[in-house]
Amino acid sequence: MAKYDSLETHLRDLSGNFVRLTFAEINEILPSPLPRSAYEHPPFWSNTTEGRTHVWADAWQRAGWRVTGYSLEQRHVDFRRFQAASADTPQGREDNAGETRGVEPSLREAAPAASYGDGRQESEERQLVAIKTRRGQPDFRERLLRAYGAACAVSGSSVEALLEAAHIVPHALATNYATTNGMLLRSDIHTLFDLHLISVDSDYRVTISRSLEWTEYAQYRGRRLVALPIDLQERPSTDSLKRHHNLFIARDEALDE
């Protein structure tokens, strides 16, 4: 049984639509303690399952729950059921969850639509996202091609047919086609970046997952990006890079489990 299956089972068996669990309580549920990243890196508690690499987020969402708030200082996390919310959900507890330090606006906005099971609304939202993606992506790539001199930021490859516009904060989490939320990456590196197997820290140095230790990608570990926009205002946002890098760390630490 995978480590987080027990958390999935626990949440699935709960009644009601809201629960606050302390980290200590979660450690009692799991067969082994939470990793260090759960205590230090806020992205651990995001609902992203980008590339299906965040097995912990998969577990609570398979059970029909999403994280709506957390506090690393007080060491607790708030879960809300999104498949069958009922009218008797304690409003006061919902408000308190919204005031928790860890709540992200994107999570607060996403939860109600999913909670009430409005398939038509979700379908319309998906269509709007698809439209925004189609409209934004070509221009986004063209701007990145110009900013990065048509070269992959990590490898330096100049084969334009292989170069893709990578979002640092995924499009699924935020519609942001600003050049500062993107990097020009070779297609294979783009895939590994989206899977959080390759990341870039706030000093523009490449970090590589331990799972790629004996591959050709290990050569990039610790290197500074070889291509960056000359215009400082077009360079990757350090806040966005930190967010991606924290998820990279959380995923890499999961390899120890």
Automatic annotation (TrEMBL):
Residues 91-102 have a biased composition (Basic and acidic residues). Pfam families: DUF7662, HNH_2. Residues 84-125 are annotated as: Disordered. Residues 152-201 form the HNH nuclease domain. It comes from the Bacteria. Residues 4-80 form the DUF7662 domain. InterPro entries: DUF7662, HNH_nuc. This is Uncharacterized protein.
